[in-house]
Design goal:
This protein is of the alpha/beta class. The protein has helices spanning 3-48, 55-73, 76-81, 89-104, 144-160, 179-189, 202-206, 234-245, and strands spanning 115-117, 123-125, 134-139, 165-170, 195-197, 214-218, 224-229. The longest helix has 46 residues, at 3-48.
């Protein structure tokens, strides 16, 4: 084979190699483009699963979700730390209740009595409401479901305040909730219902409150009609009020 033929064979071989490499390169580019398109489509589908909301609404939803989780715990940690010293808080509260009732009013019914403070710092007992139906609500300003139901309580108070006493008992433990924070929250929202502060957790202990919101309906004679744990609607409140006042 002469020198020219050898050169031609080498040139053809190089051309074949370059052509093959070019085909492989183009194929790789195509696969990369397809992968990018698929990735974009997948990302878009995942994003559509997230509803578009304003930053305010998103923040509110996050706060509600976070508070709901906390709500299930509420004061569980506090109850747990007392568990070794007070294995049956509810029974003890019931045993103590007759003594408390005898001091306030011997005619008070089976609803565990307690004493809280009003906005002016005055002591107010549950049994002092003898003769009028009472709705007791345990709440805190950090609790999302609690905040969601407060407008319903305010509406009910304006409508039935002359027939039923409403005690909005704030769990002001001084750590997660403070009296000043609760007062500021009430004022900023313009609520008109009376707020009481359970600064020593006596009301919380009396009713073994481990999750909030919690609502207790009490007849005018001091006997418990029913209790509701979790957020309550205005229609549910009204239904129970009608049962209370007959």
């Amino acid at each position: 084979m002469n020198k020219y033929a050898k050169t031609l064979i080498i040139a053809l071989a190089l051309t074949a190699v370059i052509a093959g490499a070019s085909i492989a390169y183009n194929a790789a580019i195509k696969r990369a483009e397809n992968a990018a398109e698929n990735s974009t489509e997948t990302l878009t589908e995942e994003m559509t699963l997230i509803p578009e909301t304003s930053s305010t609404t998103a923040k509110a939803k996050k706060e509600t979700t976070s508070s709901s989780v906390v709500t299930e715990q509420t004061t569980t940690s506090k109850a747990t730390t007392r568990a070794e010293m007070q294995n049956d808080a509810e029974s003890e509260a019931k045993r103590a209740a007759p003594s408390q009732r005898s001091e306030n009013n011997a005619k008070w019914g089976d609803a565990p009595d307690f004493t809280v403070t009003d906005a002016g710092g005055n002591s107010v007992s549950l049994s002092s409401h003898l003769g009028r139906p009472v709705i007791v609500n345990f709440w805190a300003s950090w609790c999302g479901p609690c905040k969601n139901e407060l407008p319903a309580f305010d509406s009910i108070y304006k409508k039935y305040g002359g027939e039923v006493d409403i005690m909005m008992v704030n769990l002001a433990d001084g750590y997660r909730e403070t009296v000043s924070a609760a007062k500021s929250f009430i004022a900023s929202n313009g609520y008109s219902f009376p707020v009481y502060f359970d600064v020593d957790s006596s009301a919380q202990t009396a009713y073994s409150v481990r999750s909030i919101p919690r609502t207790v309906f009490i007849y005018s004679d001091g006997n418990v009609m029913s209790q509701h744990t979790g957020m309550i609607t205005e229609s549910e409140l009204e239904t129970n009020i009608k049962k209370l006042i007959g």
